[in-house]
Amino acid sequence: MRNTSFSKMAVLPVGLLTLALTMPSCSSNEYKKLEGDKAKQVASIIRNNGCMECHSATANVPFYGKLPIIGPVVQADMKEGTHYLDLTAMLTALDNGKPVSEVDLAKVENTALSGSMPPAKYYTMHWGTSLNDDEKKVIISWAKEARKNNYVSPTVAEEFANEPVQPLVAFIPTDSAKVALGFDLYHDTRLSGDNTISCATCHGLNTAGVDRKQYSEGIHGQFGGVNAPTVYNAALNFVQFWDGRAADLKEQAAGPPLNPVEMGSASFDEICAKLAEDKELSKRFLEVFPEGFTESTVTEAIAEFEKTLLTPSRFDKYLSGDKNALTAEELEGYQLFKDNKCATCHVGMNLGGQSYEYMGIKENYFDYRGTGLTDGDNGRWAVTKNESDRHKFKTPTLRNVMLTTPYMHDGSIQTIEDAIQVMHEFQIGRHISDAETAKIVAFLNTLTGEYNGKLLQ
C-alpha cells in the first residue's frame, strides 16, 4: 500500500505544476484595512489565505479535487486538515469579539511560529497562501494578547505568561461543608444498586484518581467499554467523560450511579431512600441542604468535593518562577513537548481537557490496534451523531500521567513510552527516537503532583 501511494505521489508535482499555471494567487492585504482589531485581522488572514479550504467540515471539494490521481490526495488532505483543526468555531468567535478556544489559539499560533502551513503541494496550486512575515507577526501578537486576556494563570511568572501550558490555580472556591459531605458520598457504596461500588472504586484517591485497569469493573462483575479517566484536576476540564456527554462535574456525578454496567442503581429515589436511613448523615446533610437528599443535592456535594482535587507539581513551581524546580533533561523534554506539537492539544492549566481531538490523524489507529471497533471508539459521535465527530475524544489531562496507566480511551497502551511513540506516529506523523522519548518522559515525571501535601503514588 505504501509503495502504491508513493508512486502516485511521484506524479503529483507534474500535475500540480500544470494546475498552478491556471490558478490565481490567494494572496491578500485585506487584513491591513482592519488595523487596530487584531482578532478581525486574524480572521481576514485565515479567510483570504485559503485556510478554510482544508480546515472546515463544510468546505467544498475544488474541481481539481475530483481529478484522477490528484483528486484522492486533495480530498485526503482536506479530511486530515479538518481532523486536526476545524477553524469554523474560531472564525465565528473572532468575528463576534468572543474568546477562541485555548486549543485553537495554540494550534494557530504554532502554525505561525513553525511556518508549517500550508503544505508545499497546496502552495503550488495556491501561490500566495503561505503566511508572510507580517501576517505571522499579526497572528503571534494576537495569540499572546488573547492568552493574556483569557487563559493566563494568576500564579504564573511573567516570563512564562505566554506559555501554552500554565501553572495550576492555588484553589477553586468551594463550600467546606458541602466538600465534607461530598467526600463521604464519593466513598459511599450505597450509591450502587447492591451497595458494593462507590465513586472511589474506579477513581481511587490513592491510585492517582483511576483504577489502573483497562476497563473498570462495575456491579455484578461487569466491565465498561472505555478506560476510566482520572478524577484529579477534572474540575479544569471543559466537559466531562471521553465523549463530553456531561457539561460539568455535577452532571458527571449523576451518570455512573444509574449506569447499569457501572453502579447499577435503579434511580436516585432509591439511592436517596438508602441514604436517608442513615440518621447521622441525614442530620449533617439537612444542615447544608434543607431540601434533603435529591439527585441535585447529592451530585452537587460530590462535585464540590471533586473541585478540591487539584495536584500542584514541580512543573507548576517552575512556571511560577522557581528556576531550580526542573533539571536540564526535564527542560529539554518540555521543549520537545512543545516542538512536537504536544502543547497544541495538551494546553492550559490541565495540560489537556480543553477540546475534542480525532484519534489517528496521520494513520488509522484502529487498524493498528487490530481488535475491531467498539462502541467506545465512537467518541463524541455517541452524543452528537455527527459523522465528523466519530473517533473524536476529549483530550485527557497529562497531570499525573506517569501514575495513570494504561493509556488512551481504550486502555490499550501499557507504557508511557509506547503512548508517546503512538501519539507521535498517529497524530503528527513523526517517528520519535528512544532518546527523545526518554527526555519527554523525564518532563512528564514533573507533572506528578501533590494532594493534601503528599506526592501522589
TrEMBL record:
It is an enzyme of class 1 (oxidoreductase). This is Cytochrome c peroxidase. One of its GO terms (molecular function) is cytochrome-c peroxidase activity. Gene3D superfamilies: Cytochrome c-like domain. Its main location: other. The keyword Repeat does not apply. It is found in: Cell envelope. Keywords: Heme, Iron, Metal-binding, Oxidoreductase, Peroxidase, Signal. It comes from the Bacteria. It comes from Parabacteroides faecis. Residues 1-27 form the signal peptide. Its EC number is 1.11.1.5. Residues 37-147, 177-309, 328-448 form the Cytochrome c domain. It holds the Pfam family Cytochrom_C.
